[in-house]
Amino acid sequence: MSHTLDVQHLSKQFNQDLILSDLAFQLKRGEILSIVGPSGSGKTTLLRILAGLESPSQGSIHMYGKEITFQKANRRDISLVFQQPLLFPHMTVQENITYGAKLAGKKNNHKISELLKSTGLDRFKSYFPSEISGGQQQRVALARAMATEPEIILFDEPFSSLDPKLRQQIRYWVRDFLVNQSITGVFVTHDTEEAMIMGDRLALFHEGKFQQIDQAEVIHKHPANSFVADFLGGHLVIDEQNYVPLKECSLDPINEQEARSYNGVLQHITYQNGQAVGHIFLEDLDHKISLPLEKPISGEEVTLYIKESSIRTFGGSSL
Amino acid sequence: MKLFNNKSVYLLIPALLFLTLPLYGFFSAIFQSLSGGDRWTFEYYLDLLESTRFLSSIWFSIRTTLIATIVSLIIGVLITRSFYPYLEHHVPRLLVWLPMLFPHFVWGYMIILLLSETGLAAQLLVEAGVLQNSSAFPIWTRDPQGIGIIVTYVWKEVPFVILMLLPVYGSIKPGYYDLVKTLGGSKFRQFTAIEWPAIFPVLIETALIVFSFTISAYEVPALMGTTFPEMISVLSYEWFYGSGWEDRPMSFAAMVSLSLLILAFSAAGFSILQKKRWRAMRGRSI
């Protein structure tokens, strides 16, 4: 059976700037792809092209084998959840959710009331958007996209305006919904943790290209290049070819002949998941790392020790 | 003294001071229309209701004004939504607003020069061979249908409608159009879901302003109208400055009736905009 979404040689140029360069990927039905990359790298442009809001300069998009590259947005069975909730201010919560379903010809009162319940918005269904909080508004926007029951839902950093706790809850709710309904999803974010939670696969996007697409574990174990290793944050990038997993770096001298060391400055300490994390600037590499601290450290000057055998090559297959 | 603790009472004072003279005029008109010498009477109002001249006039006024108002609003909306990105620039905006700079009387005179049977349009059509002679040109000024009055007001009020709508169109987030597209909505849906709710409250307000002004203004119907039926303002003027004093209370009664009509329209418009949905649209606390 053909892929739900098949993207080939997709490029987009604005004036002289190449925003997307020869992108290609496929998604199976029900699969969720997280696209993660720095802000302003062109992720939103990619989503807008997939949604039909912009057309690509080159390349093709197929849905279940049928070409939709130049099909209008309102003819595609694809929904887009924007960064802003964009609720209709003159419609109540319930009317906002129903509106999308009505346009898609999929209005089902039972389903709408299920969505209201599962989003915890049942109590607010006759409220207007100006009467509910930002988090609730974003949940309404999510419910509105879901009520249209599209083949594919695209998410453009939809949780960026939510507080961390709410963000945590809503991530799992959205993921469960997509999995239960077998809806294919493309989830764009600049938060790697969120990308790993939401996506079956992770695509690291930088300079108009996917630097690597794979499961989070594979990418973590075998980063393709220095950008991937640096962006994920679990590795110390030594140069363009080599890196060391942070868990194999130590602030204590290593009792081994084949070892190297780098001088650094401990800039500050934060606490995450019950553990102290030292944020260290390595002067020799002009690079900053965050390393769990096993024991308290006195003073600002630190030395990082690495076994030569721990140094790996990008795209290699050690481990 | 709870009444004076309420700030809104103080906020009303400047408005009341400003309105002293018009309110005095209005109440004195009511007084005169109800005064039957040494007693109160509704005689003049009853006379009005029996006067064919008044009834034709008020019907002609409402009909002409409603047509002018609705056509102005429709053309204003069409121009604004088609050209608002251009209208944000200075030169096109000035061109659109140009008719607002001329007094209504001047604009009416211009319409006569343009559209009368011996006007520019008629002569051009004769020159072009479309018409045999200028008398074949339809009567569009000083006509019993009020076409000249309608054309003058439409031309004059469309820029005002655009002036009211431009900020509304400018404040619509472009993301909403993308949203409706991705939900499967056509261009028509984009209008009904995004633009209409945004412009509706402004259109109601603009309609009230244009309607009240058009139905009560004097100079354009005096210049462009016929002697029968005539707009209510022209009739009132004639009654007021007529040969005898006896018609004056009728003039006051006609004007008071007109004020009540405008008041009723305004109350209806206000009550629509006070609905929760439209208050929510404006982001007001509900």
Q: Could you name the key traits of this structure?
A:
heterodimer, A: 319 residues, alpha+beta, Rossmann fold, OB fold (Dihydrolipoamide Acetyltransferase, E2P), 2 domains, six-stranded mixed β-sheet, 8 helices, 26% helix, B: 286 residues, mainly alpha, MetI-like fold, flat
User: Architecture of the largest domain in chain A, CATH level 2?
Assistant: 3-Layer(aba) Sandwich
Q: How helix-rich are the residues of chain B, as a percent range? A: over 70%
CATH architecture of chain B: Orthogonal Bundle
Order of strands, main sheet of chain A, comes to 6-7-8-3-9-10
Number of domains of chain B: 1
Q: What is the overall pLDDT average of chain A?
A: 89
How many structural domains in the coordinates of chain A? 2
Strand content bin of chain B: under 5%
- Look at the helices and sheets of chain B and give the structural class: mainly alpha
Total E-strand runs of chain B? 0
CATH topology type of the largest domain in chain A: Rossmann fold
Terminal CA distance of chain A:
35 Å
Report on the biggest sheet of chain A. 6 strands, mixed
Model regions low in confidence, pLDDT < 50 over at least 5 residues of chain B: none
What is the terminal-to-terminal distance of chain B? 27 Å
| Helix-strand topology string of chain B | HHHHHHHHHHHHHHH
Radius of gyration of chain B: 23 Å
